[in-house]
Amino acid sequence: MPLGGQVLANGQIEFVRRWIEAGAPKTGSVADAKLLDDKTVSTAAYEPLPVPAAGTGVQLRIAPFDIQPKFERELFTRQMVGNAQDMYVNRYAIKMRNGSHHFIAYDFRNKSILPNLNDIRDIRNPDNSVNFLTVLSMSNHVFLAGSQQQQQEYTFPEGTALLIPAGSSLDLNSHYVNKTDAVMKGEAQINFYTVAKSKELRVVQSLDLGNTNLPIPANARVTITKSFTFDKPRKVLTLTSHMHKLGEKFVIKINGGPRNGEVVYTSTDWEHPDMVTFKIPLNFQKGEGLTSEITYNNTTNKAVRFGLTSEDEMGIIFGYYYEE
User: Fold this and answer.
1) Degrees (nearest 5) of the Cα angle 201, 146, 185?
2) Does residue 2 have a pLDDT over 70?
3) Disulfide engineering: 134 pairs with which of 61, 119, 121, 212, CB 3.0-4.6 Å?
4) Residue 230 burial by CB count (10 A; 0-12/13-18/19+): exposed, middle or buried?
5) Is CATH 2.60.120.230 the right assignment for the domain spanning 204-322?
6) Are 79 and 190 spatial neighbours (Cβ–Cβ below 8 Å)?
7) End-to-end CA distance of the chain, in Å?
């Protein structure tokens, strides 16, 4: 379904299911059109992620909130992790209600300038104007974990883990789109599962490589590239992408070194991009890096640029790496 749209009726779901079961033929009729007469809409109650068992991890959550009709709501809330000691995370799970564009947990670059704990900070005011204080706080973010899928689980490669220092707080970010005429509910949880520290455990860090120079003319298909170089040797474990609905194809290539130009990641699904973990980490020397090559197809009559709503565009490489 288009993001934030009406839920399909039972008859529509059954009609599509039978078409798929018949091999999804391009022509012909394989399902009875009378199925579409069933206009009943069934929505299962949302079941939050269960809290990890004691001693195995922690859960952070954004409590249920309203998204007004014909409105996009994106908010942040800073919460304490609750870890009295350093915490090593080897797996995380995310779940959110239907209609979400994404959920991200951010760390902070500068820990001396932090937003108030537990406040709900919206990017847009009720009149759809921008809350500049919230936008300004985003410049202090460091990507930690996230998902564009309603439910996703990620496990770090064996022998690696994400470090969350003792006494940490994280900024939880939820973005919902409501294109219906009724109020929607948003909600999300993230579980961090822990592993014991050992001498062999490598600590991973997060990649957050974004391009904000995205001039996309009206009624045009364009490919925009940007290269990023690393100031230290790195071994990249995981790559994923983030673009909005005009994005047709997101390609990541190696930039520099003996594998210069090699494609290491491709996604054509802006809503549910692949998250690729490499069995053998990608090895980069100082001065080498990654290139994003993103094709946008602007089918609208207006020019589009980088922005925060689903009607704007983005182009970000996310992932994980470690240094030796």
Assistant:
1) 145
2) no
3) 121
4) buried
5) yes
6) no
7) 44
Indicate if 204-322 has the same CATH topology as 57-200.
yes
Task: State how far the Cα of 242 lies from the Cα of 313, in Å rounded to an integer.
Answer: 9
Nearest to 129 by CA among 49, 63, 72: 72
Q: What pLDDT is attached to residue 319?
A: 94
Sorted by where each begins, the domain ranges of the chain are 1-43, 57-200, 204-322
pLDDT per residue as tens digits for the range 83-135: 999 999 999 999 999 888 899 999 999 999 999 999 999 999 999 899 999 99
Per-residue confidence (pLDDT) for residue 308, from 0 to 100: 78
Whether 94 and 50 have beta carbons less than 8 Å apart is answered as no
Strands (E), 28-116: 57-67, 71-80, 87-96, 100-108
132: tokens are: 């500049």
For 15-43, letters b (16+ CB in 10 Å) and e give beeeeeeeeeeeeeeebeeebeeeeeeee
CA 181 – CA 292 distance, rounded (Å): 38
Query: What single-letter amino acid sits at 48?
Result: P
Task: Report how far residue 324's alpha carbon sits from residue 322's, in angstroms, rounded to the nearest whole number.
Answer: 7
The pLDDT tens digits for 139-155 are 899 999 999 889 999 99
Q: What is the pTM of this model?
A: 0.80
Q: Domain 57-200 falls in which CATH fold? A: Jelly Rolls (2.60.120)
Rounded Cα distance, 1 and 136, in Å: 33
Q: Are 161 and 90 contacting, i.e. CB atoms less than 8 angstroms apart?
A: yes
Per-residue pLDDT, 36: 78
Q: Take residue 24 and report the two structure tokens written for it.
A: 């999804």
Mean pLDDT calculated for residue range 239-252 = 95
